[in-house]
């Protein structure tokens, strides 16, 4: 299949969108919910804190009993009970009395403030106080954080650590979230070997396995990795054996046009190729197809092209499977470099950007993985532009903003 007709990036996105699958929900343990996406709104089952809670170690008192007390005017209260966090007192504080409390203890009946321990000296049952508190001081009132019945999270929220804690405080040990796509990565190429082996002539280290795995991990996704030789029958079987079990198949390699580049033809044979070849750089030979209703993303073998294709076309689709609309923030910067580009093609130039400007463009070959380490951003050149002049304002996206757990 020749790569003579390229579709525009917007057209590629439109076709992906038309073939977008959104997964069902599932109920999972809250501890496993990091970076998962809520399927429904969540309403709190409890007030939090569930009772008026002491915010300090000290003594629950009637604030009015402490007024005017100071180091020069020490007053004496009677300690009638002592409790820690997790305990409560049956007693009621009357005028002139105090109950020792810990941070987190329920404030005993009758008390309306907590005097910090530092302002007291206890002497048996007597409590000398040399400080004053106002009513409600050092008390976290019931429901201060969340109220019973309150909507604490909206559906489609991506769960981070703080949301996990909020859901727990609302009384839930489980969460209903979108299923996350199970991804099968099939790296193709006869020349590929694992790192660590002594390289024989014409062998190439399989780095895509690691870059693509890392990109999936940054979205909280797990991946099953396989390798196929450039053998039509082997690849066909691997694809067909994956469509039942996996929600998405990603391949790398074999997207160009030479003899060993079989991936596109194999997908055409066992399913349908919806497009092959997009007017983007890097990553022009990107292909997308469907086999037994399973979407197949065909990335290039070149490591930088594969990463670029993932960034421009795959990530958005995978997130939308969990109903997340993801728009990484673009920043405006002054370009301190002149960069050529061709009309009709959208370029994602590897760039090193500071808070003000783009300092370097790493417009190197798509095999130069080091350029992705040296760059920190993509500078985007629109298809309607022919190059960027020095001093021009451009748009960039920082790599780290492409990760969900940024
Ligand atoms: N005549 C043409 N040749 C090429 C075209 C074209 O339009 N006409 N497009 C070029 C572009 S652009 C790209 S991008 C590449 C895409 O190539 P393939 O997807 O077919 O990739 P391979 O040929 O399998 O490999 C390319 C290169 O990358 C190395 N490789 C492959 N897999 C891995 C891996 N898992 N880890 C690390 N490196 C890998 C491979 O050894 C090759 O060196 O095609 C251009 N050619
Ligand atoms: O798309 Mo290729 O990445 O330009 O080398």
From TrEMBL:
EC top class, as a word: transferase
Pathway membership: Cofactor biosynthesis; molybdopterin biosynthesis
UniProt signal peptide: none
Annotated keywords: Molybdenum cofactor biosynthesis, Transferase
UniProt domain MoaB/Mog: residue ranges: 184-320
SMART domains listed in its UniProt record: MoCF_biosynth (SM00852)
Molecular function per GO: molybdopterin molybdotransferase activity
Domain of life, source organism: Archaea
GO CC terms of this entry: cytoplasm
Entry EC number(s): 2.10.1.1
UniProt GO BP: Mo-molybdopterin cofactor biosynthetic process
InterPro entries cross-referenced by the UniProt entry: MoaB/Mog-like_dom_sf (IPR036425), MoaB/Mog_dom (IPR001453), MoeA-like (IPR038987), MoeA_C_domain_IV (IPR005111), MoeA_C_domain_IV_sf (IPR036688), MoeA_linker/N (IPR005110), MoeA_linker/N_sf (IPR036135)
UniProt cross-references to NCBIfam families, sorted A to Z: molyb_syn (TIGR00177)
Protein name: Molybdopterin molybdenumtransferase
């Amino acid at each position: 299949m020749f790569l003579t007709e390229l579709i525009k990036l917007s057209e590629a996105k439109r076709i992906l969108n038309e073939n977008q699958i959104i997964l069902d929900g599932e109920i999972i343990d809250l501890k496993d919910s990091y970076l998962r996406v809520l399927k429904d709104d969540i309403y709190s089952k409890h007030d939090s804190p569930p009772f008026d809670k002491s915010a300090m170690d000290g003594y629950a008192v009637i604030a009015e009993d402490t007024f005017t007390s100071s180091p020069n005017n020490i007053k004496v209260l009677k300690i009638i009970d002592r409790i820690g966090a997790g305990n409560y007192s049956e007693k009621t504080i009357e005028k002139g009395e105090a109950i020792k409390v810990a941070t987190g203890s329920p404030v005993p009946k009758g008390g309306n403030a907590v005097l910090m321990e530092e302002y007291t000296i206890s002497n048996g049952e007597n409590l000398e106080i040399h400080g004053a508190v106002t009513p409600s001081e050092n008390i976290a009132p019931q429901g201060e954080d969340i109220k019973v019945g309150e909507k604490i999270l909206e559906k489609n929220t991506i769960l981070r650590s703080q949301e996990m804690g909020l859901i727990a405080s609302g009384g839930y040990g489980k969460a209903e979230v979108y299923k996350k796509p199970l991804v099968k990565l099939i790296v193709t190429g006869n020349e590929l070997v694992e790192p660590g082996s002594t390289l024989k002539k014409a062998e190439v280290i399989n780095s895509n396995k690691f870059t693509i795995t890392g990109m999936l991990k940054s979205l909280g996704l797990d991946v099953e990795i396989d390798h196929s030789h450039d053998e039509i029958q082997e690849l066909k079987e691997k694809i067909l054996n994956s469509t039942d079990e996996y929600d998405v198949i990603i391949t790398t390699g074999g997207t160009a046009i030479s003899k060993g580049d079989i991936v596109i033809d194999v997908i055409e044979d066992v399913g349908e190729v919806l497009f092959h070849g997009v007017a983007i750089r890097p990553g022009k030979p990107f292909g997308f197809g469907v086999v037994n209703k399973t979407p197949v993303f065909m990335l290039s073998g070149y490591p930088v092209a594969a990463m670029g294709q993932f960034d421009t076309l795959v990530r958005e689709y995978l997130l939308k499977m969990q109903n997340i609309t993801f728009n990484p923030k673009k920043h405006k910067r002054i370009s301190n470099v002149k960069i050529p580009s061709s009309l009709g093609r959208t370029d994602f130039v590897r760039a090193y950007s500071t808070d003000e400007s783009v300092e370097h463009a790493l417009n190197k070959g798509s095999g130069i993985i080091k350029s992705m380490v040296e760059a920190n951003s993509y500078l985007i050149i629109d298809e309607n532009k022919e190059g960027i002049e020095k001093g021009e304002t451009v748009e960039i996206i920082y790599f780290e903003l492409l990760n969900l757990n940024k």
